């Protein structure tokens, strides 16, 4: 595969997916070439390969003009360092810090080498993702000293918010430095939902792994389950029946619609327009109840399984879902008119929490929020895998990068997803729902790439020769987008922060495994 | 005189007892307008009962002011409720304060609430207190202008005189009062921490004004503050009714029939007013905090316009 002038000797691993191994020295050059052609870094993680006869590994996934490039570098067990990528792709910063917390592999010359995920649940010298980590070690009782960057000067003071909030939301700490109401700096501190998910995957059988993968971030279940299954099917070179693939896409779009409806309601609620909140949540609830009726689970949990799907749709179910899609489309249209014409709501939404396109490109803003800041990436439109290659997905983008733009992208995507739901129902191919996975002989690996409602979800899987999972890394788009919330609020006033935060609606659990 | 005192006591206790009912009614209307099932109208009483049964949790570094403030705030609101005529006019308490002193009573309660909010030293309390002061220093002048407009007609800042002039003298349409009424509505929403200036039902601590100040309160202290909030809404409603829709308030020496009519009238007016408040809240979003000065500036301007119109048309 060529990027720029240079051929990087990456081999195709699947449609739009490339795989390569290189020396750590080459990694920087590759990253620069990708950055130059306008690509982005998507994910970065490490692995302990000592049981497979190596040392450690560092893995980087890059989004390039010809698809997703997954490159790995082997690291000797006595030289656990790789070149810092954060100066090329700032979004790598937290991934690098987390990789050190979990595996002890560090980026040399990194500007920020503070801990990220570790809060004192394990010692600074212990690395839980190493195979020889002893889980029986007592948790340390170190005080969690984390050096926030202080803003000094006359009239500056700090507001510390969270990790426990007044509402029932996920835990995260936000440290504001403000003058009056104006935000001078915001620093996030995450890692309060660490569950050891990646460690838990080790040695798990493939079917159970699908359940765990789907629970990485509860609101993105279908995307994670599909990405995991895609990776497993790639690793084992198994084929999935057409009908199953189409049903997976149906589940993914249903999930996207449900989340967007909920978010639009929340955005109304955050400006105290409870009317919008109630109406959108009524629609979301109808949508979830229909999912429960047709597929047996409100959030479609465990409907996507390795090798296919676990549930079919009947003809009457197809008619019912299509009719509900029509109804929701009409209702969303009239609700959008109300949002559009509500002067106070428009005043609150527009010019709030702006992320300019240049900044979004530099810092790697992705997914829905990225598209609201003119970062035109949507895997379904640009690198479509079946069945999206037959659906001609149109991408929703905005340029202004404010709360309003993120709401507009959601509206446009609801309509597009409703169209996709109808198209998927109409052209649903006949056939089996499930095919058994091919037998596993050797250590094998695969990667899944799915455009979730929030952004791209990537799941990389390595299966051992015994047919059990060796290393699974699920990547959430919130990794890239959280730092942009810090930047997007600058110059805004404190009471607008919840609205800005909600317009991104990022996952706390997804990037904290 | 003794009937006066009896009436005064009856009116004050009725206000204290009925205030949560008005809150419950507004909440009920809000729920209906949002398409929700409404909580029972007596829900605020249940909340108060629950809070009075709980043990108070107080920060270690709280000063006596923190404990004292809820009683002070409740007392201020109860006093204000006694002064504003709801059923009968010109009761013994009425001369205790004219409308200007009434603004002072509200301000006293606010000062105590803001001081108590800052007392513990949490960032939210300070944040809320600061914002409350921002809103109130703009709301108070507007409120005073509204009172001045009303008092120009009756040539007195005494509430009984104003009510007497408007309700029991020859019926005249005063255009100035229409402007003052709109201004009063706007100021009332700000003073009572309602939409569009504040959102009483938010859980987002960073956006709160009033709620941020009382985050540290629990149990009986919180109950008193919640009760005082309900009383404040009741008193403001009664004040609005006395100034702009005073018909039905009994005069001193009226018959028992007139008093029962007055009770019916005030209940009807509160019901309609509460439903209207809920309606306005249902269709409004909360303003950006820094738009609140413009909103209150508009209220002030309307009140001044009302005054000018009085001089142009009504003198």
List keywords for this structure.
heterodimer; A: 513 residues; alpha+beta; Beta Polymerase, domain 2; Cytochrome-c3 Hydrogenase, chain B; five-stranded mixed sheet; 15 helices; 17 strands; 18% strand; globular; B: 315 residues; 11 helices; 71% helix
What can you see in these coordinates?
Chain A is of the alpha+beta class. Chain A has two domains: 2-108, NADH:ubiquinone oxidoreductase Nqo5 subunit (Beta Polymerase, domain 2, 2-Layer Sandwich), CATH 3.30.460; 197-500, Orthogonal Bundle (Cytochrome-c3 Hydrogenase, chain B), CATH 1.10.645. Chain A has helices at 24-36, 92-103, 197-201, 206-214, 221-235, 242-270, 274-295, 315-341, 343-349, 357-363, 367-372, 379-382, 403-426, 478-488, 497-504; strands at residues 2-3, 6-7, 11-14, 17-21, 40-48, 56-64, 67-75, 81-83, 106-108, 156-161, 173-179, 182-189, 304-305, 308-309, 444-451, 456-463, 469-475. A five-stranded mixed beta sheet of chain A has the order 3-4-7-6-5. The longest helix of chain A has 29 residues, at 242-270. Chain A is globular and about 65 Å long. The model of chain A has no long low-confidence stretch (mean pLDDT 93). Chain B has 315 residues and is an all-alpha fold. Chain B has one domain. In chain B, helix 5 (123-154) runs antiparallel to helix 7 (175-191). The mean pLDDT of chain B is 89. The A-B interface holds A 157-161, 165-167, 181, 268, 270-275, 277-279, 282, 342, 344-345, 347-348, 352, 493-498 and B 30, 33-36, 123-124, 127, 195-196, 199, 201-207, 215, 282-291.
């Amino acid at each position: 595969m060529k990027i720029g002038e240079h051929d990087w000797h990456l081999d195709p691993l699947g449609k739009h997916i490339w795989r390569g191994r290189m020396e750590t020295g080459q990694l920087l050059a590759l990253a620069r070439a990708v950055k130059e052609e306008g690509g982005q870094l998507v994910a970065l993680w490490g692995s302990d390969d000592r049981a497979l006869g190596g040392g450690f590994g560092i893995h980087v996934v890059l989004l390039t003009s010809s698809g997703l490039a997954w490159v790995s570098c082997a690291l000797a067990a006595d030289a656990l360092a790789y070149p810092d990528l954060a100066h090329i792709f700032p979004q790598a910063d937290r991934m690098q810090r987390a990789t050190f917390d979990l595996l002890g592999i560090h980026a040399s010359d990194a500007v920020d080498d503070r801990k990220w995920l570790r809060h004192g649940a394990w010692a600074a010298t212990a690395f839980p993702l190493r195979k020889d980590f002893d889980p029986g070690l007592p948790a340390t009782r170190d005080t969690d000293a984390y050096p926030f960057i202080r803003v000094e000067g006359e009239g500056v003071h700090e507001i510390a918010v969270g990790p426990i909030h007044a509402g029932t939301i996920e835990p995260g700490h936000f440290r504001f430095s403000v003058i009056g109401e104006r935000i001078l700096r915001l620093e996030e501190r995450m890692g309060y939902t660490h569950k050891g998910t990646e460690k838990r995957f080790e040695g798990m059988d493939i079917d159970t792994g699908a359940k765990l993968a789907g629970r990485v971030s509860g609101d993105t279940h279908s995307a994670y389950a599909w990405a995991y299954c895609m990776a497993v099917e790639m690793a084992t070179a198994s084929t999935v029946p057409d009908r199953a693939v189409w049903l997976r896409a149906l589940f993914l779009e249903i999930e996207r619609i449900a989340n967007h409806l909920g978010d639009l309601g929340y955005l109304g609620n955050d400006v105290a327009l409870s009317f919008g909140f109630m109406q959108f949540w009524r629609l979301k609830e109808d949508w979830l109840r229909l999912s429960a009726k047709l597929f047996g689970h409100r959030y479609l949990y465990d409907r996507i399984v390795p090798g296919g799907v676990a549930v079919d749709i009947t003809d009457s179910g197809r008619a019912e879902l299509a009719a509900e899609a029509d109804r929701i489309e009409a209702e969303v249209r009239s609700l959008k008119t109300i949002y559009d014409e509500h002067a106070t709501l428009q005043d609150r939404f527009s010019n709030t929490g702006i992320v300019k396109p240049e900044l979004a490109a530099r810092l790697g803003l992705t997914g829905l929020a990225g598209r609201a800041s003119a970062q035109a990436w949507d895997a379904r439109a640009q690198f479509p895998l079946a069945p999206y290659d037959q659906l001609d997905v149109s991408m929703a983008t905005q340029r202004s990068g404010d709360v309003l733009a993120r709401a507009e992208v959601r509206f446009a995507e609801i309509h597009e997803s409703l169209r996709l739901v109808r198209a998927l129902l109409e052209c649903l191919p006949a056939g089996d729902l499930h095919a058994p996975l091919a037998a596993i002989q050797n250590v094998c690996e695969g990667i899944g790439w799915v455009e979730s409602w929030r952004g791209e979800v990537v799941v990389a899987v390595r299966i051992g020769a015994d047919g059990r999972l060796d290393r699974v890394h699920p990547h959430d788009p919130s990794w890239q987008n959280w730092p942009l919330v810090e930047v997007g609020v600058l110059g805004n006033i404190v009471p607008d922060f919840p609205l800005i935060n909600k317009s991104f609606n990022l996952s706390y659990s997804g990037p904290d495994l | 005189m003794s009937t006066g005192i009896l009436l005064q006591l009856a009116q004050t206790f009725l206000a204290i007892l009925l205030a949560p009912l008005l809150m419950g009614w507004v909440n009920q209307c809000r729920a209906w307008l949002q398409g929700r099932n409404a909580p029972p109208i007596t829900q605020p009483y249940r909340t108060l009962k629950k809070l009075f049964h709980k043990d108070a949790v107080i920060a270690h570094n709280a000063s006596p002011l923190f404990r004292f403030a809820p009683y002070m705030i409740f007392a201020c609101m109860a006093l204000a409720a006694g002064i504003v005529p709801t059923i009968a006019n010109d009761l013994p308490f009425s001369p205790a304060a004219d409308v200007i002193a009434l603004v002072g009573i509200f301000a006293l309660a606010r000062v105590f609430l803001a001081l108590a909010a800052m007392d513990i030293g949490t960032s939210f309390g300070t944040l809320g207190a600061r914002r409350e002061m921002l809103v109130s220093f703009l709301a108070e002048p507007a409120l005073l202008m509204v009172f001045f407009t009303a008092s120009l007609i009756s040539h007195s800042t005494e509430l009984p005189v104003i009510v007497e002039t408007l309700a029991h003298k020859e019926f005249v349409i005063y255009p100035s009062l229409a402007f003052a009424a709109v201004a009063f509505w706007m100021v009332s929403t700000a003073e009572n921490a309602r939409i569009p200036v504040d959102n009483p039902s938010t859980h987002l601590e960073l956006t709160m004004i009033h709620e941020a100040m009382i985050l540290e309160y629990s149990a009986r202290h919180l109950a008193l503050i919640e009760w005082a909030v309900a009383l404040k809404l009741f008193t403001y409603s009664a004040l609005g009714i006395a100034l702009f829709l005073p018909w039905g308030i009994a005069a001193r020496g009226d018959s028992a029939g007139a008093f029962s009519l007055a009770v019916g009238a005030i209940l009807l007016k509160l019901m309609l007013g509460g439903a209207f408040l809920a309606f306005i809240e249902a269709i409004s979003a909360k303003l950006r905090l820094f738009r609140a000065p413009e909103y209150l500036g508009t209220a002030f301007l309307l009140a001044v316009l009302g005054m000018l119109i009085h001089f142009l048309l009504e003198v």
